[in-house]
Amino acid sequence: xxxxxxxxxxxxxxxxxxxxxxxxxxxxVGRYHERGDRGVVLHDVGVHEPGSGISRDDWLARxxxxxxxxxxxxxIVPQDEAGEVERLAS
Amino acid sequence: MPYPxxxxxxxxxxxxxxxxxxxxxxQEVDAAIGDQKGTMLVFVNSVCGCAAANARPGLARALxxxxxxxxxxxxxxxxDVEATARARQYFADYQPSSPSMALLRDGEVVxxxxxxxxxxxxxxxxxxxxxxxxxxxxxxTV
Lengths: 90, 142
Known about the structure:
- The structure holds two protein chains of two kinds.
- By secondary structure, chain A is mainly beta.
- Helix content of chain A is 12%, strand content 43%.
- Chain A has a five-stranded antiparallel β-sheet, with no helix packed on it.
- Chain B is globular.
- The A-B interface holds A 1-2, 4, 6-7, 14-17, 44, 64-70, 87-89 and B 48-51, 53-54, 93-97, 100, 112, 114-117, 119-122.
């Protein structure tokens, strides 16, 4: 079903859990809602801070196995912070 | 806030049609999962069209496989809130998401499928992952 939009009127990634690399070095994982003027809106978001004691790759591997420890119910990643967006499952 | 019962009724019926037993209260959850023996799949149901719309038919297809869990039970996230919270206590190492699925063997989680592993995947792909887990964990032991 690749490419199938589940919610008519929304972007393809709407409702999909994504990873966003931040320009700051932070990494965000959450359920994509939309990309608007202010940035990318995510729900149920976990945030990895560089220098937090666990590498980004290990943090993502833990999320893939055990799920997202939610830091923010909703978070807007600003446009100038939001880098590459990819599916967590990919 | 729970959705109107009439809206979620088809989603409940889709589960019971495939043989899943609904657990509606914490007491029913404890009776089913507490001191659980053998193999059991716990399906955390959801109204989400992004993932649950593929998860339910994926599970139904997987349950046609000759090797399958001895029992399938289901709780409904956002609807049967207390029952869902209690069920999640039995797989507390895994962060909540819905839909999701926990395969238990003698009370231990041996395989877990998160929502992010369902999103965007076809029912066939979901079924393939499940049947692989069934083959690995639900077959006869010698």
